[in-house]
Amino acid sequence: MPYLKYDEKPYMVITDEGKLIWVLDAYTISNNYPYSQKTILQETQTTKLELNYIRNSVKVLIDSYDGTIKFYITDRTDPIVMAYYNIYPSLFVNLEEKIPQDISNHLVYPEYLYNIQSDIITRYHNVQPDVLYRGDDIWNIATHNTGKTLAKSGTKMPAYYTMVKTVNNQKENLGLILPYTLYGKQNLISYIVGTCTEEGNLDLKIYKYQANSNVLGPMQLDTKIEEDETIQKEIETLNVTGTKITRNMIVVPIDNTLLYVEPIYIRYTNEKNSLPTLKKVIVSSGTKVAIGNNIKEAILNLVSKYAVDIQIENTDTIEELTEAIIKANKNLSASNESNDWEMVGKDIKKLQELINKLETLVEEENAKKVNEQVNEIGTLEGNLINDIINGI
């Protein structure tokens, strides 16, 4: 069936009878859908694919023993796949026949489709015409630090599979997760969860916070971790010559709570074919953060006296930034008095970052006021012209 686009990552399911079945996601695509945002995908190093329509309408089941192939249509509302069904009726499984339950229970949300959707959602999560026109509700895929040093921008988080239990589900489910921050800010604004229902249907949901919420973002958490002496000393024990530290982070929704998990690996650079080894795990939830040698120990520390309190600062307005600068300046004075030169350096760095952010925010506020004045003048001119025309 050459008219379908096939996923590059098939996965295997074991049936109740012990058969090994490959599941291959297939997509109908087009680049001619009217009034739709185009997406360019890098297929290979030399080829690109441009499209503005994609549906995961077909699941292909392949018996790994005898090679039997079955094409199941899972989305009858897709006009393209239904046209193929009418052209090649003997190719697809009868529409009334469903994917066997022992296979459909293990279907997962395809990462290929999810990555396309997660990119489009950064702008088109709110499709009100005035919001889209102004572009004042744009999200960024959350970033985090992957190395031992704290970077300003960080690395964009990839989508990841994890067990989730969201507020509207009674049981855990395997889902694809990706968190977002508001454009130009670091606090978490939303996350999307992609799961499969028991019938094999795709389910994509957006969980959104208020714009002024103080939900900690991955970069903010990394900053808090670096500022805490207790946790930082634990991490510094791994920083020895001949090793490379790698950090990862995932955000796991549990009911109405987010659990941040950051495993830390080391790899010995002077050893050939050295594999990364898990050494520490940092976990955080709410205003608590803790570290342990493994996930179990870290979570136990999180709910004990060994947990570290973290203060979440909201620096989205000039008033909040001014308060943060005053506090940072007091911290710098305290570090100077105690001759703690390492903390002096960190305090100076944070103070400089806050001042730079304040300068940027003041410039944005001034530009916004100018635009509002221009719009107001334009409105007055328009009303005046209408009055003149009506008078004539």
Structural features, described:
The model has no long low-confidence stretch (mean pLDDT 86). The chain is built from 9 helices and 20 strands. The protein folds into 3 domains: 5-100, no CATH class; 115-312, no CATH class; 325-381, no CATH class. The strands form 4 sheets. Strands 8, 11, 12, 13, 14, 15, 16, 17, 18, 19 and 20 form an 11-stranded mixed beta sheet that branches. Helix 8 packs antiparallel against helix 9 (341-391). A hairpin with a 5-residue loop joins strand 6 and strand 7 (69-73). It has helices spanning 79-87, 101-104, 111-124, 129-134, 218-227, 229-236, 295-302, 318-337, 341-391; strands at residues 5-6, 11-14, 20-30, 39-42, 48-51, 53-63, 69-73, 139-141, 143-144, 155-156, 160-166, 173-182, 188-196, 202-208, 243-247, 250-255, 257-268, 277-285, 288-292, 308-309. The protein is flat. With 392 residues, the protein is an alpha+beta fold. It starts with a strand and ends with a helix. The chain is 33% helix and 31% strand. The longest helix has 51 residues, at 341-391.
| Series of secondary-structure elements, N-terminal to C-terminal | EEEEEEEHHHHEEEEEEEHHEEEEEHEHH
Q: For the report, how would you describe the main beta sheet?
A: 11 strands, mixed
Question: What is the count of DSSP helices, taking H or I runs of 4+ residues?
Answer: 9
Q: Based on helices, strands and strand pairing, what is the structural class? A: alpha+beta
Count of DSSP strands: 20
The general outline is: flat
User: Could you tell me how far the N terminus lies from the C terminus, measured between alpha carbons in angstroms?
Assistant: 68 Å
- Could you tell me the radius of gyration in angstroms? 26 Å
Sequence stretches where pLDDT stays below 50 over 5 or more residues? none
